[in-house]
Amino acid sequence: MATVERVTSGGIGDSVLRKEDRKFVTGEGRYVDDLKLPGMLHGAFVRSSFGHARIVSIDASAALAMPGVHAVLTHATLPVVTGVLSASNPGGDVRHPEQAVLAKEFARYVGEPVAMVIADDRYLASDAVNAVHVEYEPLPVVVDAEQALAPGAPLVHAEYDSNLCKTLESITDGFDAALAKAPRKVTLRVHNQRVTPMPMETRGCIGDWSNSTGEVTLYTSTQVAHFVRTFISIVCGTSEAKVRVVTPDVGGGFGAKLNTYREEFAVCAASKVVGRPVKWIEDRTENAVATIHGRDQTQYYEAGVAENGRILALKLDAIQNNGAYNQLLTPSISHLTLFMVPGCYDIQDVSITIRQAFTNTTPTDAYRGAGRPEATHGIERLLDAIADELGLDPVEVRRTNFITEFPYASATGLSYDSGDYAATMDVALGHADYAGFEARRAESKQNGRYRGIGLSTYVEVCGLAPSAVTAALGIGAPGWEHSTVRLHPTGKATVITGTSPHGQGHATSWSQIAQTELGIPFEDVEVIHGDTAFQPYGLGTYGSRSLAVGGIALYRSLGKVREKARELAAHLLECSVDDLEWTGTSWQVKGSPDRAKTIQELAYAGWTAATLPEGIEPVLEATTFHDPPNFTFPFGTHICEVEIDPTTGRIEILQYTAVDDCGNVINPMIVDGQVHGGIIQGLGQALFEETVYADDGQMRTPTLVEYLVPSAADVPPMSLHRTTTPSPSNPLGVKGIGEAGTIAASAAIVNAAVDALSVLGIRHIEMPMQPARIWKLIEEAKS
Amino acid sequence: MIPSALSYTKAGTLDEALAAVAAGARPLAGGQSLVPMMRLRLAAPEGLVDLGGLAELVGICEDGDELAVGAMTTHRSVAADPQILASCHVVAQAASGVGSLVIRNRGTIGGSLGHADPHADLPAALLAAGGAVIVRSSRGERRIEADDLVTSYLTTSLASDELITQVRLPKGAARSAYAKFHRRAIDWSIVGVGVTIGSAGTRVAVTGVGDRPLRATGFEDVINAGGSLDEAVAQAGTGMSPLDDLDGSAEYKLHLVGVLARQAYTEASGR
Ligand SMILES: Cc1cc2nc3c(=O)[nH]c(=O)nc-3n(C[C@H](O)[C@H](O)[C@H](O)COP(=O)(O)OP(=O)(O)OC[C@H]3O[C@@H](n4cnc5c(N)ncnc54)[C@H](O)[C@@H]3O)c2cc1C
Predict the structure, then answer these.
(1) I need a surface site. Which of A224, A689, B191, B235 has the fewest CB within 10 A?
(2) What is the ipTM of this complex?
(3) Strand B132-137 to strand B140-145: parallel, antiparallel, or no bridges (unpaired)?
């Protein structure tokens, strides 16, 4: 990667140091737990210790007798059953089991909230939780999705005749014939294990209910403040106008906070009961069971292939573990998998069936990549399996199958707007010295080690989303985004965005866009987000949408302000608007630099309104609600090189090369950071992370001792590069980069490990590839 | 992750600390094991006595043919100490591999030995070195050899009113090494093996394969009888019965004992 010079101010394309970082690195960020409201009490939850049980009785008398304990709420005292609204109904008729805010009669996973204690402080609340006695009658448990769909499995929800939530299907007419005709068949089973998003800041919220006005303020660590407000207002039966949701600084989300949770409603309800603000901060072990998980999809692939590796037909039967309930988007996550099953390959005949199952586990939902990593990991593993079966180079099999003409109508109904997959692959092959690999493999062999190289050529769909499309997909929320640009009398600017940054650096990137498009210096732009009281509806930050949708909303508002300023300038300079040209910071009469008005002068003139052109309102301010015409489709090639020590089974990543194409780049440093973090998260899934349930529904990975998140010392050398294919779907030519690294990484790493061990006849490795598993595979292969 | 209520005192003198421990308080050293256990409510002491202010428990000096290491000496200091590196390498090497720098800056050798976690590195390293600890109570002082220190899971042979004040390391353990296997850089050992090639023979101790650090007597017997390294490695796991868990099967762990014993023995021979 060419080192880019980092600057402290700049416009589009500059590597500007993040203006928000100073407060974070000096400990002055303000997270929910930093907020202390007068009279505030603290809540804590009694959670089910059983995977499945009937709640026989709850005795809170000992807890209530403790001085400083104000209330213990249970379903009996808080009988609200729409605890979570699922906004997801793909294909219609999705089973949505009711969720009580506090469990009603049955608990269906370890960690399900059963009662809530409200006390003077957090310590007392925890002691009181231990003093609440719940009598459970244990019921049969099922944690595995395939087992849950087998006949005779214990029912997670007795009101349904099976544990099936929904079957998603996409089968092309020609599939059967195409598969029958194919000379070679390749099959592969892939399990994409359950993982936990694990943001550094766990969830937390404060409910502040005014019994006199009926107004409620909820401070919550979320990616979707407005959606949470809608949810609270529906559940409480009160007007949105009386509900305010405030999102202070958020320490990471990764999809875990793209949700509405029972606890968010519970703190509001508790505040109403006790007449004081109530805070709840999730602790780390609570986070392991109470916040959504990701992935947990088992895939059975069958490809019909020509002798040259061309895929003629592709079949996927998959089972998705939804957990015990549907959260906000649960049924839609594997729907995203379905769309991306063919990846960047021209496969026109597909048969995709994804069955979603309820189990006695924490609900799954969006986790960085949300459905797309499952598709990419599967198809990229399959491409290597095909190459292996046919004795071809994985690079050539990819080249043979790449989509080359755009726009491309995929078999699953997407329109890929642009791409050049071979170009990123060739750049990556060069940087990774693919040609020289076999010599390196031989060298490792001399040292008793197995060396392998693996590719992942991915395309993903992001920039969520055209609202007509989200509606058609059964998602009960639109995909547009809001922005307001407001120029102050001094010529400084406020940008209000409906996106909800929680680590992505929007304050910086949005300021860069404002500098380039409106000539307001970077440091004069203030970016505001995350308070429903002073901004129109915004959809938030997820699905790599912020720049491609929210950034375009901003771009359009900046353009509106610039055009209004032009009319004002023409009026003040006594010329026609057509006589003016934009210099980047001012409107000037063409060819006459002495006859010009800077944007700051025009902001002042607009505010004083001393003389305005006919029909022009005072103040330079504009608002946009931008609905994107299409998704965006970032793509790229990641190449991983590993070495495996057969004595211990340890996999060492020697080199990781990534070439990503996210279109035009606003801030290269931020893009690199997103790619780094994304790759590390994919690496975590490939090598370390797995959320494990025992058969009785107990979680075996409740702390960071068992759930292994990669640390800085586990990060391999990375070499990052880019190609630039601007998106034709938006005027900035931008796409998204927040999830690409995660989507690409796990397959590259597993493909490298399988390649290393292919000499032993090993064809596939499940994740996480922990040393014990690798050692066992090697031992078995040798004997 | 919220500990239960407790009282806290910071001892100004060793006698104060001993009195507090005798009265039922739990000693707090670096807090790197005790505090996480308290947060998980796996430990719920009613009172803590903080040893952090006791300067006499910190530092390393020579004492005859041993090094005397204060119980409150941090892993970081132990790992970097030239005398320990030179004459009891296995302990310095084990300390250098504990957790991360942050943990090593706070965690102490006395705390690690007092805690007796079955995956901890220091108890195994001390056992391999053939060291000992000095423990004190208001009743007096005694010495416990490493072989007798840890009795089972999180349990030592200390009486409830005793504190470890000093760790004794033999200076004759120069030809020694510690090898550990773990998944991430900051992780505990899945298995760790310490080897000392001393004048009285080779001592090998293993962590992670039982409820306490175990001597690899199978390995020792072969080597001390003049057998080959390969033969010794084949016997390394004799008598050990590790558990199957998320880190791997018992079979895998026994295999690792051999791999690490070979590695540590080879390294120690080269010193
Ligand atoms: C993330 C992480 C990774 C770690 N990785 C490793 C590793 O790889 N290898 C390893 O060996 N350890 C590891 N540890 C544990 C570390 O070594 C601890 O420092 C050590 O186990 C305890 O030492 P401490 O000084 O922190 O003791 P504390 O936590 O304060 O105390 C531990 C126990 O010892 C008792 N105690 C303390 N001092 C004395 C004394 N003088 N006399 C008698 N009893 C006493 C306490 O009462 C308590 O029961 C890790 C810890 C963490 C948090």
Answers:
(1) B235
(2) 0.95
(3) antiparallel
pTM: 0.97
User: Quick one: pLDDT at residue B5?
Assistant: 86
The values of phi and psi at residue A423, to 5°, are -65, -50
The verdict on whether omega for the bond into residue A407 sits within 30 degrees of 0, i.e. cis, is yes
How far apart are alpha carbons B87 and B62 in whole angstroms? 11
Interface of B with A in 92-131 (CB under 8 A): 100
Verify whether ligand 1 is closer than 6 Å to residue B36 (CB atom): yes
A449 at the B interface (CB within 8 A)?
no
| Cα B213 to averaged position of ligand 1 atoms, centre (Å) | 15
Q: Where are the alpha helices (DSSP H) in A47-166?
A: 61-64, 122-131, 145-149
Q: Report the C-alpha gap between A362 and A351 in whole angstroms.
A: 30
**Tokens coding A41:** 């009490």
B172 lines ligand 1 (CB under 6 A): no
On the question of pLDDT at A2 being above 80, the answer is: no
Peptide bond into A375 cis (omega under 30): no
Q: How far apart, in whole angstroms, are the C-alpha atoms of residue A214 and residue A534? A: 19
Strands A294-305 and A311-323: antiparallel
What letter would DSSP give residue A526?
E
For helices B89-96 and B250-269, angle between their N-to-C axes, nearest 10 degrees: 130
Nearest Cα of chain B lies from the Cα of A389 at a distance, in angstroms, of 31
Atom of ligand 1 nearest to the CA of B121: 11
Name residue, tokens 């292996």.
Answer: A388
Does residue A185 form part of some domain? no
The amino acid that residue B112 corresponds to is S
Nearest Cα residue to A399 out of A340, A436, A345: A345
Number of structural domains in chain A: 3
Domain spanning B55-170 has what CATH number?
3.30.465.10
Q: Summarize pLDDT for A578-620 with one digit per residue, the tens.
A: 999 999 999 999 999 999 999 999 999 999 999 999 999 999 9
The residue segments making up the domain with residue A768 are 294-464+630-782
Helix (H, G, I), strand (E, B) or coil at A696: coil
CB A777 within 8 A of CB B252: no
B118 lines ligand 1 (CB under 6 A): no
Q: Is A143 within 8 Å of A693 (Cβ atoms)?
A: yes
- Is there a domain that residue A473 lies in? no
Tokens of A599: 């944007």
Backbone angles phi, psi at A720, to 5 degrees: -105, 135
Nearest CA-CA partner of B193 in B175, B212, B213: B213
Which of the 8 DSSP states describes residue A578?
G
Handedness of CA A384, A387, A390, A391 (dihedral sign): negative
C-alpha to C-alpha distance for B202 and B226, rounded to whole angstroms = 11
A vs B: CB pairs below 8 A: 59
Which candidate in A198, A201, A647 is best for mutational testing of the B interface (most B CBs within 10 A)? A647
Architecture of the domain spanning B7-50: 2-Layer Sandwich (3.30)
Cα(B260)–Cα(A681) distance, rounded to whole angstroms?
30
Tell whether A280 and A301 lie within a shared domain. Answer: no
Query: CB-based contact (8 Å) between B42 and chain A?
Result: no
Query: May I ask the CATH architecture of the domain B176-269?
Result: 2-Layer Sandwich (3.30)
SS3 A700: coil
pLDDT digits (tens, 9 = 90+) for A53-68: 999 999 999 999 999 9
Dist CA B168 CA B82 (whole Å): 16
3-state SS assignment for residue B30: coil
Tens of pLDDT, residues B76-101? 999 999 999 999 999 999 999 999 99
Distance CA A331, CA A336 (A): 9
Domain contains A191: no
Q: Is the pLDDT of residue A1 over 50?
A: no
Judge whether A366 and A309 are in contact, CB under 8 Å: no
Q: What is the rounded radius of gyration, in angstroms, for the C-alpha atoms of chain B?
A: 18
